[in-house]
Amino acid sequence: MKILKFGGTSLENAGRIDRVTTIIRNLLQSKEQIAVVVSAFGGVTDLLIQAAKKAAIGDGRYSELEQQIEDRHVHLIRELITVQNQSHALAHIIRQLNDLHDVLHGVFLVRELSARVLDFIMSFGERLSAFIVAEVLKEKNITAQFLDARQLIKTNDRFGQAQVLWPDTLANIQQYFQKQNALQVITGFIASTLKNETTTLGRSGSDYTASIIGAALNAQEIQIWSDVNGVMTADPRQVPEAFTLPRLTYEEAMELSHFGAQVIHPRTMQPALDKKIPIRIKNTLNAKHPGTVISAQANAWPYPIKAISSLDAIALVSVIGSGMIGVTGIAGRIFTALAREGINIILISQASSEHSICFGVLPASATPARKALERELKLELMEKTVNKIQVENDLSVIAVVGEKMRRTRGIAGRAFSALGHSGINIVAIAQGSSELNISLVVEQKDLTAALQAIHKEFFNLQQETSR
Ligand SMILES: Nc1ncnc2c1ncn2[C@@H]1O[C@H](COP(=O)(O)OP(=O)(O)O)[C@@H](O)[C@H]1O
Ligand SMILES: N[C@@H](CC(=O)OP(=O)(O)O)C(=O)O
């Protein structure tokens, strides 16, 4: 069994959906056993979120976005399904869109949008797309069946970023698949609590859905189909010279995705790693390209690093004070206070002088982090052991990643001098304990230039021969 996941970029318009159906048909013809996971059509989740947010502030223009969502889906049905079969599909999606309308109107009336309601609203994207893809496949004489993953994937109620309840989920998936003969077209991204409330697995979480299903069914391979020839040495939108990596280890892929390589969601690796299932990243627009295989196996690679990824916007929070030198337990208190507020720390960097501890968070968490620390360190601030808690905005973080870095000296030095030669200021540095990753914080305005300079430093010499 292979699990194929098609992301929003693979489902952006009728032409791309047609390519998806061809890929599926070819695999079925070569007698592969497959199941398909789909994301919402490209851009639809964003439209749903925008509509919900507008409704919540009482802006009646949410209905224009609702109309756009309806038009996208109706239009695709008209383009992809023959007239005689259209009415069934249209009737189904109109019912769904009416439900969506009712919820959005409710949000508009009460002027309130909880994380729970937002998850329910977002779920329409995948419910509509998976249904339509299944109908399009049926149109091509493939015995396909729409499957709402909320039936199978059970989570806690951390809406927006729900955590999987593994025993229930694995049992549900295994039992369900024992009885199915038709090709399952499964909604990515969405799940439900034990009380059947809709949850989501975090933005871009459809990759994770594929991995959950793959692990439950002991799949032979999990394929993530996107719009690039696999995981590349950098985001090709930022670094045009970036090229495809034939192989990556699970750990490398985790580091890269954690630091912004959008092509794969960070949570996807764990279920696959546990069951030793390879993940292959493929291009819907270039199906013949072998893409990237992510597995436990490291490969021979001529460069000292594997890839560079980046998070465009982070804030750096620093706790500064000469009185902190040698004081045990202060770092522990800082991180416990942040954990209590549910603040996710992207990187930690401590200057060797121990004068300051600084850590990177998403911009939205910077003020809550500062307030939490001001409360926790009230006494120290009064006594001036801690002088100030400082927040710096408009920063980006770059991660330089690769297994080989553990054994190669001087990588950090080369990255620093590459930035130095380009006149780019490094705001902070951190090294992960795994030594798989060096992170550099730079000013946001310098991000693209910094990525290009580091890419050139490590890949320029032998690039042409290994593409
Ligand atoms: N290292 C990388 N390798 C490949 N693509 C990357 C990388 N970093 C960022 N990307 C971006 O990820 C995009 C695909 O991710 P995403 O838009 O989430 O796709 P999908 O909708 O198919 O899930 C690519 O178009 C590419 O610009
Ligand atoms: N539709 C969801 C889930 C997802 O995985 O999308 P994509 O595969 O297009 O990144 C989102 O936009 O977050």
From TrEMBL:
Gene3D superfamilies hit by this protein: 3.30.70.260, Acetylglutamate kinase-like, VC0802-like
Entries under CDD domains matching the protein: AAK_AK-HSDH-like (cd04243), ACT_AK-like_2 (cd04892), ACT_AKi-HSDH-ThrA-like_1 (cd04921)
GO biological process: lysine biosynthetic process via diaminopimelate; threonine biosynthetic process
Catalytic activity: L-aspartate + ATP = 4-phospho-L-aspartate + ADP
EC class of the enzyme, as a word: transferase
Pathway(s) it belongs to: Amino-acid biosynthesis; L-methionine biosynthesis via de novo pathway; L-homoserine from L-aspartate: step 1/3; Amino-acid biosynthesis; L-threonine biosynthesis; L-threonine from L-aspartate: step 1/5; Amino-acid biosynthesis; L-lysine biosynthesis via DAP pathway; (S)-tetrahydrodipicolinate from L-aspartate: step 1/4
EC number: 2.7.2.4
Domain of life per record: Bacteria
SUPFAM superfamilies in the record: ACT-like, Carbamate kinase-like
InterPro entries, A to Z: AceGlu_kinase-like_sf, ACT-like_dom_sf, ACT_Aspartokinase, ACT_dom, Asp/Glu/Uridylate_kinase, Asp_kin_monofn, Asp_kinase, Aspartate_kinase_CS
Domain ACT: 319-396, 400-467
PROSITE patterns associated with the record: ACT, ASPARTOKINASE
UniProt entry tagged with the keyword Cell wall biogenesis/degradation: no
GO MF: aspartate kinase activity; ATP binding; homoserine dehydrogenase activity
Keyword annotations: Amino-acid biosynthesis, ATP-binding, Kinase, NADP, Nucleotide-binding, Transferase
PANTHER family (alphabetical): HOMOSERINE DEHYDROGENASE (PTHR43070:SF3), PTHR43070
Family of the protein in this entry: Belongs to the aspartokinase family.
Name recorded for this polypeptide: Aspartokinase
